[in-house]
Amino acid sequence: MKIAKRLILTTAALTAVTAGTLVGATVGQAATPQPPLRLGVTVPDALKVPDGNKLTGVFSAAGVQTYTCTNSAWTLLEPAATLWAKHDRTHRPLALHSRGPVWVSTVDGSAVNGSAIANSPRTGTIPELLVKATATRGTGVFGGVSYVQRLATTGGVAPATACTGTSTDQVSVQYTATYAFYKPAK
């Protein structure tokens, strides 16, 4: 299974390179200085990242929260979302988000796993979260990530009605969010 996932990620990365979608300077061309990252959304006090960490990536996301029927109630099974650069109107996929939670770069294969340490409830949508990294892989965009914030959430809430089926009954609810990634400041 791990080999299949790596093959998929490698194929996606090679496709991106071939299509010329990776951001960067070409040979013999100086890189253009980038302005500092800005979050562009309000962060509740409960979800503030501790001092000593620096914002290194802001991505928009769209996907689903999948729920399963457990003891006649809907419980979260897993998220599944695609992330892209916050202001990219083409929504070119740069990362995938799934159960763990884990985020994997489709560009460089780096990844971050985490565990939610704080939440901020929002009416009519899934809560915003502060996630602390529990493991990282690679040296790319997610290598060395210390914290992740899930902000500006819309949708994704489990159905309010009780389920009557078995644990094989599932429902997926669309959601959007902004994910902000932080690394220790040097």
Protein topology:
Blueprint: H1 2-19, E1 53-70, E2 73-85, E3 95-98, E4 102-105, E5 111-122, E6 125-137, E7 147-155, E8 170-184
Antiparallel strand pairs: 1-2, 1-8, 2-3, 3-4, 4-5, 5-6, 6-7, 7-8
What would you report as the Rg, rounded to the nearest angstrom? 18 Å
Which series of helices and strands comes N to C?
HEEEEEEEE
Multimeric status of the protein: single chain
Structural class assignment: mainly beta
Strand order of the largest sheet: 1-2-3-4-5-6-7-8
Count every helix, treating DSSP H or I runs of 4 or more residues as helices: 1
Overall pLDDT confidence = 83
Helical content stands at under 10%
Give the number of DSSP strands.
Answer: 8
pLDDT under 50 segments (min length 5)?
1-35
Q: What summary fits the major beta sheet?
A: 8 strands, antiparallel, barrel
Shape: globular
End-to-end gap: 36 Å
Strand composition percent: over 45%
